[in-house]
Amino acid sequence: MNQSNKALRWERWVAAGLMTACAVSLQACGDVDGSSADAADVNDSSAEVAEACASCGTIQAITPVKVDGNTSGAGAVAGAIIGGVVGHQFGSGSGNDAATAAGAVGGAVAGNEVEKRRNTSTVYEVTIDMESGGNRTVNLASASGFSVGDEVRVSGDRLVHI
Fold first, then answer.
1. Using alpha carbons only, what angle is made at residue 40 by residues 38 and 46, rounded to the nearest 5 degrees?
2. Angle between the 94-118 and 74-87 helix axes, to the nearest 10 degrees?
3. What is the rounded distance in angstroms from the CA atom of residue 48 to the CA atom of residue 32?
4. Number of domains in the chain
């Protein structure tokens, strides 16, 4: 065997030894406290799941509830004007004044009611049987995607499927 082949074999042995030493060193770093990294991840995940489930539960009921809309007064003003104009068409003299006033008052009440109904909305009252015990109610603008029996997590005023 010539000198260059001996050197090449020697370099390969040195490289293999260095790679083995690196692999052993990396393995030792993972087991510093005697536990594997996978076991630490599992323990962390269990703690997160236990903590998250304090806000977990099952939907027991979804009830639509009509909420009266707010009024700005614009409906009452518009109704009063229209009612006053219509009331002015009846009677003469002081009867005309009374009909105008009655039309304005009636129109204001009717206009306010029309505005309130126009602004009425439906919210969905969702009752959740919590895993930690008891019930919790959350109001949602839309209950699409949720049904009775779904497992959810309550996050503020939102529900998230589990």
1. 105
2. 150
3. 24
4. 1
Q: Does residue 109 sit within a domain?
A: yes
Structure confidence by residue, pLDDT tens digits, 27-69: 554 444 444 444 444 444 455 555 558 899 999 999 999 988 8
Structural domain includes residue 100: yes
Contacts of 81-88 with C-beta under 8 Å, sequence gap 24+, read 81/107, 82/107, 82/111, 83/107, 83/108, 83/110, 83/111
Over residues 86-144, the pLDDT tens digits come to 998 988 888 889 999 999 999 999 999 898 888 888 999 999 999 988 999 999 999 88
pTM to 2 decimal places: 0.47
CA-wise closest residue to 119 among 73, 78, 67, 74:
67
Contact residues for 86 (Cβ-Cβ < 8 A; gap 6+): 103, 107
Query: CA torsion sign, 28 to 33 to 34 to 37?
Result: negative
Q: How far apart are the first and last CA of the chain?
A: 69
Give the Cα separation of 110 and 104 in Å (integer).
10
Q: Which two tokens stand for residue 20?
A: 């083995």
In a domain, 103, yes or no: yes
